[in-house]
Amino acid sequence: MIVKKLSRMPIYLLALFLLIFTGFPFLYMLSTSLKTQSHFFEEPFKLFSSFNLANYETVFNMGLTRYFFNSILVSTVAVIAVMIIASLASYPLSRMNFKINKVVFLLFISGMMLPIHATLIPIFKLSQSFGVFDTLWALLGPYIAFSLPISIFILTQFMQEIPKSLEEAAKMDGCSHFGIFWRVILPMLTPALMTVLIYNFIHLWNEFIFALVLLSSPENMTLPLGLQDFKGEFSVNIPGLMAALTLASLPILVVYLFSQEKVVKGLAGGAVKE
Q: Where would you find the membrane-spanning parts of this chain (predicted)?
């Protein structure tokens, strides 16, 4: 027993090193957010040498709540739409045989090779034509469109691994294609759907370039744009910026921790249904 535990020591040491390597930046950010500007310049690398919540009060007074709400709203709506559309598109691509199956799949995947910067001017013109410029609605189109290729790729590859015997058994019970998708395929997609959720939510939460081009009013700005308020022309409020970044990272941590548990449960029980 002791020999077995000792043989695992290198794994434990590696895990500890990775924990310190990935956790230290967050601890440093949290520690800096609790300092005043002068204290930060006096002791920039000393952790938790002060406990000052004034930066968080300043952050909320500068409108961070509004930026938070805008980012949560547009990211949540876009991710839900992507999960629904991608799962519906992936089902026929992976489970049905038709002549242009591979062509359609390649057309979806080719979207991953399209640089978003090449679409900024056309999307800007479209948003003006449709009358949605400087609204959160302007972000939903590009957010959903550019999230679909990788999402369809992940879900299609995952669906192809599901045994077709389950689908045939459902057909014998009288299920339609939609019934098979809803009752058999979709419950087994939990790990892949959570992967799509985590990947897209993190990407959209941090998205900057489309928000910069399509939004101009402070009340419509998302969190990445709002963080610019902490940068002046000749100086930067570093503790205040760290306080804003600490609060901005909390939704990502919550989504990741919640979704990680769902992924593990899906992997453990997704293939066996009563």
A: 12-30, 67-91, 103-124, 136-159, 180-202, 239-258
